[in-house]
Amino acid sequence: MTDLKSLLPEELEAYMSVLGEPKFRAKQIFSWLTKGVRDFDEMTNLPAALREKLRAGASISSLRLLRRRESEKDGTVKYLWELGDGNAVETVVMRYSHGATVCISTQVGCRMGCAFCASTIGGLVRSLVPSEMLDEVLYSQSDYGEAISNIVLMGIGEPLDNFKNVVKFLRLVNRPEGLNIGMRHISLSTCGLPEGIAALAAEDLSLTLAISLHAPDDETRSKLMPANRGVGVRALEQACRDYFAATGRRITFEYAMIDGVNDSEAQASALAALARRTRAHVNLIPLNHVEERPFSPSGPGRMRAFCAVLDKAGTNYTVRRSLGGDVDASCGQLRRKREREERSAGQ
Ligand code: SF4
Fold first, then answer.
1. Cα(111)–Cα(157) distance, rounded to whole angstroms?
2. Measured from the CB, is residue 274 less than 6 Å from ligand 1?
């Protein structure tokens, strides 16, 4: 079966030629798919014979809602979706002043092993295909009842570990005849894989690249993020400089403040120097607590002292407000909860 929603308009045209249909049908089908139709019969401007041909050889991917939690504090909505093969992924919709933002997952599980993250606890199960990522946007948008204007790839999974499918998804949502979400409204967050960063620069997309840095020194970073081992902050710094030189786009360093781990004044100084050399913007995030992990967020005193060092160094930074704290909004928490419940139901 051809996975129709993973095809770009030009690939749909090629598929129409195979079916002996005129090219213009591709545009009509692409438009229906990105409107979120769930059945070929909803494509009312296609002849019945073509709908039958499509039904015989192609499929329209879909998601099933397993859980929906809405924050009473800030309206953040978290979804747990079941994929066609029974696996589950999480998607979050948040409201910012610039519109509704969807945070999508790019893999089922993750093999990067970050010590503060719930998504990686069971390892990587598989990568998502473009249609599944597109469905996260379409289904969340339909439930949320408002057009999504921004996308962040910051949910379950490492986007650069699923490079080909992620780039195709980005091109699908960007197409003017589809969702038409501009690259400048898309952020991709990575744990910092230098080869992937170089490959992304070569794709020449004008998206925002966010690096989950979380420590400016190898000792701390390798403890928190095993992907740093054998790579090192220095190679990551070089990849960031090269990315900026190639794209002219300023990188963001995401920095989750963890009590007693990465929030010393010496680390603030090292972070400020790294941000200056790479011309990066720094995003300080209060850590979202994860049940299975031993870390807690930095207290207000340590946060203030850390910020004072950044202020003194003239670092370009923001302190991000943490949305959805009451709905397990950190990536992987809802999926883990479901797995635990399934396990205890089976005992
Ligand atoms: S933080 Fe991101 S890269 Fe790290 S384990 Fe979690 S999902 Fe993977």
1. 8
2. no
Contact 282, 257 (CB under 8 A): no
Instruction: Answer whether residue 239 shows pLDDT above 60.
Output: yes
**Is this structure's pTM higher than 0.90?**
yes
Question: Measured from the CB, is residue 158 less than 6 Å from ligand 1?
Answer: yes
Cα angle at 14 between 11 and 15, to 5 degrees? 90
Q: Dump pLDDT digits (tens) for 65-78.
A: 999 999 998 889 99
Q: Is the pLDDT of residue 38 over 80?
A: yes
Q: Whose CA is nearest to atom 6 of ligand 1?
A: 117
What does the pLDDT look like over 133-176, one tens digit per residue? Answer: 999 999 999 999 999 999 999 999 999 999 999 999 999 999 99
- Shortest-distance atom of ligand 1 to CA 118: 6
Question: In this structure, how many other beta carbons lie within 10 angstroms of the beta carbon of residue 252?
Answer: 22
Q: Please answer whether residues 276 and 313 qualify as being in contact, where contact means their C-beta atoms are separated by less than 8 angstroms.
A: yes
Residue whose tokens read 């054998």: 230
64-346 — its CATH code? 3.20.20.70
Residue nearest atom 7 of ligand 1, based on CA coordinates? 157
**Domain positions in the chain:** 2-59, 64-346
Under CATH, what is the fold of the domain 2-59? DNA polymerase; domain 1 (1.10.150)
224 lines ligand 1 (CB under 6 A): no
